[in-house]
Amino acid sequence: MKYVQLGRTGLKVSRLCLGTMNFGPYTSEKDSYAIMDKALDLGINFFDTANGYGGRGATEEIIGRWLAQGDGRREKIVLATKVFVRMGDGPNDRGLSAYHIRRACEESLRRLQTDHIDLYQMHHIDRGTPWEEIWQAMEQLVREGKIIYVGSSNFAGWNIAQAQCAAAARHFMGLVSEQSVYNLRARMIELEVIPACREYGLGLIPWSPLAGGLLAGNLQNASEGRREKRKEAAQRHQEQLEAYEEICRDLGEEPANVALAWLLHNPVVTAPIIGPRVMEQLQGCIRAIDIELSEDVMEKLDKIWPGPGGEAPEAYSW
Predict the structure, then answer these.
(1) What pLDDT does residue 232 have?
(2) What percent of the chain has pLDDT above 90?
(3) Does any domain span residue 199?
(4) Residue 277 needs a FRET pair 20 to 30 A away by CA distance; which of 48, 200, 210, 269 works?
(5) How many domains are contained in the chain?
(6) Is residue 227 in some structural domain?
């Protein structure tokens, strides 16, 4: 396994991040334990979850019971979770108010059976809560030792700038990472989010690196998949997928690994989030770390899956 610093921090994390969204809804607790154990064996030390995964904390509880088995599991991982989504029926059971942040953090710590969260991420921007309140709440959690770093997820570039300016005024470190949807098919964040991450020293943690399985190969299976959206996407992008999978065959690599390797070639990317449902998916991803894509291959991929044209404003202006 290879490791890299998370953004501008001194924290070292693996080049692949274990996503746990499937734990509970699609992967049994027993199989989830096996996947987490195997991830450790493979050198993956970066685990990502969220308080809303599995339905109001169910996935965090699975991870907590796994951590409670001991054997140094907690000390071996960088544990990331999130706050924002609705966790109850009350008017203050969602968002980024100081009230909800404090309560949500306490509940995540209880479910995860740990005394601290390494990376506490805001799952979405909360336009109704001022940054002074958000940062005051996060600073308090840092002082209490309940969280170490703060990250964002699904933020726009200007949200990152807002957050960092407000944090700097308080002499607080602010955000150290951003978790955005990013893959060969979805490249919109190249306009402003990636430049913002680079400027402010945030590590980018792409979610859905395989575009919901679309880039995982086997076009026929994708078009016959159980999920209607995936089936429609495969049909809509059939020409691109055929060209993409041909490149992968020429390289002698699995399409899923080429898609991950493409992300890892971006210096702003810290670790794509892999979300295996079964053990085979986890083991197959490790190869991506060692794949070197030539400039010629990168250009071919860019033609098949064109981005927005570069960074703003040059992408749409002179």
Answers:
(1) 83
(2) 92
(3) yes
(4) 269
(5) 1
(6) no
What's the predicted TM-score (pTM) here?
0.95
CATH number at residue 31: 3.20.20.100
In a domain, 309, yes or no: no
- The active-site residue, picked from 53, 149, 200, 244, is 53
End-to-end CA distance of the chain: 42
Domain ranges, residue 153: 3-216+254-294
pLDDT digits (tens, 9 = 90+) for 66-76: 999 999 999 99
19 confidence band (pLDDT: 50, 70, 90): very high
Clarify whether 149 is annotated catalytic: no
Tens digit of each residue's pLDDT (9 = 90 or more) over 141-196: 999 999 999 999 999 999 999 999 999 999 999 999 999 999 999 999 999 999 99
- Any domain includes 134: yes
